[in-house]
């Protein structure tokens, strides 16, 4: 094969090859993980109460992520005068947890197993959903990892305890997180308008130490002040629901809520988080590609994750 570029190896353009996340290596044997970051797909959306379709989120976000997979030298940001995600950061794609249709318990157990395997391999687990119920098994996997604080970026509080016997749907994850002794508190940003959680859910959230800010409150405070409200030294698990963003830029979700964040609202918060806290886990959920024929939502999700991972390891390797 001829090589006409100035670098050795294949050019490997975004539209060529297998669409792993960022075109990173696929690891089928989860007992052999040896990487800084492990990407996990959790294509489960049986926890939804309205529009399904987030089961295709992992596939869509992976496809979109190839847009940012140019070259081998990392990504130089002229604003920060920094190169992110260079050769010093190893990322692997574990593929998807096995999902059993209509079986929440087994599907969640398989997602939890995948996250535990990533942690056992010393990797930062980054799980792409799926609906927000997939956060429940992700957080369950941290029961032997020490105390964590949850940073949630979302339109909805997700603090429903039980609704008609359902305790593990996409309206329950933050309540289930709060049930764990190792979850020391929650910071919930972007919560707005008509929510899935009743007033008593908000009241309970505050009694267990949750700090709840709307989009307008978050913007008024600014990213530095918002992140300074998170307890100093807290180890953070970050969960991002794509409906935290305004549907004008992220329509591809089952529960769109107008008045949401724009891109830099969230990116600047994540950059501050990476500077001041240890991030131990990430999930990004509720991307439902079929509701957005422009692919803007999947591109936003991929871009956000790649930038956030870049920020985290830039600070770790500084």
Provide a count of the helices. 9
* Gyration radius over CA: 19 Å
Question: How much of the residues is beta strand, in percent?
Answer: 15-25%
CATH class group: Alpha Beta
User: How many domains comprise the coordinates?
Assistant: 1
State the helicity in percent bands.
25-40%
Mean pLDDT: 94
Q: In one word, what is the shape?
A: globular
By CATH, the architecture is named 3-Layer(aba) Sandwich
What is the fourth-level CATH superfamily?
Ureohydrolase domain
| Poorly predicted ranges | none
- Termini separation comes to 38 Å
Give helix and strand order, one letter per element, not per position: EHEEEHEHEHEHEHHEHEH
Give the topology, please:
Layout: E1 37-42, H1 57-65, E2 75-77, E3 82-84, E4 91-96, H2 104-120, E5 124-129, H3 135-140, E6 148-153, H4 173-178, E7 183-189, H5 199-207, E8 210-213, H6 215-221, H7 223-228, E9 235-241, H8 263-276, E10 278-285, H9 296-316
Parallel strand pairs: 1-4, 1-5, 5-10, 6-7, 6-9, 7-8, 9-10
Antiparallel strand pairs: 2-3
Helix pairs in contact: 1-9, 8-9
